[in-house]
Amino acid sequence: MSHITQPAAPSEVAPPPVRRHRRGTAILAIAAGTALMLGGGGTFAYWSTQTALTAGPVQSGDLNLSLGAGTWTLKGVLGTAQTVNNLTNVRIVPGDVLTLTQPLNVTLVGDTIAADLKAEVGSAFATGALGSNLDVALTVSSYGTATGTNTYRITQANTGAATATVTISFKPGTTGRVGANESVNLNDIAFTLTQASS
Questions:
Q1: What residue spans of the chain are helical by DSSP H?
Q2: For residue range 72-107, what is the model confidence (pLDDT) as tens digits?
Q3: How far lies 163's CA from each of 37, 117, 142, 187, in Å?
Q4: Helix/strand/coil (H/E/C) assignment for every residue in 88-118
Q5: What is the mean pLDDT of the chain?
């Protein structure tokens, strides 16, 4: 009786073991640790030193403007200038000139400082028939140098007390009844003192 040999069943082949790259893992760990130390709370220390100046203090200068009590006069096309005691009682007409004599005091302190003194007019003089027909002009006798409309350049050499003159002229060429029965607030004229930058 013959024996038939059965072929052996194929055995299952196990997958190769996963090889861990120890050197790569170590490099990643070192890089992560370095990033942590550099990013927040590292303990690296380098040499340093500090020496304070021996220059002493430096002090700032000053810029200021104050106004004294001004006086007003009114001159018409006819006659001479008359003192105005109460502006609210004045009724101006074309050709009139209101003049303000204004004592002022400029303080400029600084090794390189210069400033521009200016009489500025607000919106009341740009709108309305009366305001838009009034011309405002500033003069400051023997005090600074005129550098533009109603603007004087002041330096430390000519600061202190001075007298400014502001004239408000009702344009004589105003015709018809333009500006009649209107008012304009003269408080819309302001003296400004601004440090010069050019």
A1: 22-39
A2: 999 999 999 999 999 999 999 999 999 999 999 999
A3: 70, 12, 9, 19
A4: HHCCCCCCCEEEEEEEEEEEEECCCCEEEEE
A5: 86
- Cα–Cα distance for residue pair 26/29, rounded to 1 Å: 5
> Interior CA angle at 155 toward 152 and 156, to 5°?
145
Rg (CA), the chain: 43
- Residue 186's contacts (CB-CB under 8 Å, 6 or more residues apart) are 87, 168
CB count in 10 Å sphere of residue 74: 18
Is 0.90 topped by the overall pTM?
A: no
pLDDT bin (cut points 50, 70, 90) of residue 25 is low
The torsion region of residue 10 among left (phi > 0), alpha (psi -120 to 50) and beta comes to beta
What is residue 21's predicted lDDT score, i.e. its pLDDT? Answer: 55
Give the confidence band of 129 by pLDDT, cuts at 50, 70, 90: very high
Are 155 and 108 contacting, i.e. CB atoms less than 8 angstroms apart? yes
**Where does 40-179 have alpha helices with state H?**
none
Number of C-beta neighbours around residue 30 at 10 A? 10
